[in-house]
Design goal:
Blueprint (H helix, E strand, L loop, with lengths): L3 H8 L12 E6 L6 E9 L2 E10 L2 H14 L4 H5 L3 H8 L7 H21 L15
Antiparallel strand pairs: 1-2, 2-3
Helix pairs in contact: 1-2, 2-4, 2-5, 4-5
The structure holds FE2/S2 (inorganic) cluster.
FE2/S2 (inorganic) cluster binds next to helix 2 and helix 5.
């Protein structure tokens, strides 16, 4: 049911914990299940030099967050903000359809943390959920 990579990242999740004095913090909840994800970023010269996460979520949420943190570490903010839950799922070898919604939590928490950093820097926030319909 779960790929070897999913099991590996679930059993040995990378980058679990908190960063003291993080430059950006994002917390989101999953409306489908009520689970919670928090992501901490350390940013230097526009590059994510460290990332940690904490979750009150299921095994799939742990595995996808672990992989997502691995994918964004060392990347620029722009590169990191383009990493989607699809890319995370591909890197993990997929998830059962019923668990795909769990992977959205990591993507949203990373986006929220990047936006938190940008807000603190007085920079413009890229709202991925806005399609510009309101003008
Ligand atoms: Fe809630 Fe997976 S069931 S994140």
């Amino acid at each position: 049911m779960y790929s070897e990579k999913v099991m590996d990242h679930f059993s040995n999740p990378r980058n679990v914990g908190e960063i003291e004095n993080a430059d950006g913090i994002g917390q989101v909840g999953n409306p489908k299940c009520g689970d919670i994800m928090k992501v901490y970023l350390k940013i230097e010269n526009d590059i994510i030099v460290d990332v940690k996460f904490k979750t009150f979520g299921c095994g799939a949420a742990v595995a996808t967050s672990s992989m997502a943190t691995e994918l964004i570490k060392g990347k620029t903010l722009e590169e990191a903000s383009k990493i989607t839950n699809k890319a995370v799922l591909e890197a993990l070898g997929g998830l059962p359809p019923a668990k795909v919604h769990c992977s959205v939590l990591a993507e949203e928490a990373v986006t929220a943390a990047i936006n938190d950093y940008r807000r603190k820097q007085g920079l413009e926030i890229e709202n991925q959920l806005c399609d510009g319909c309101c003008g």
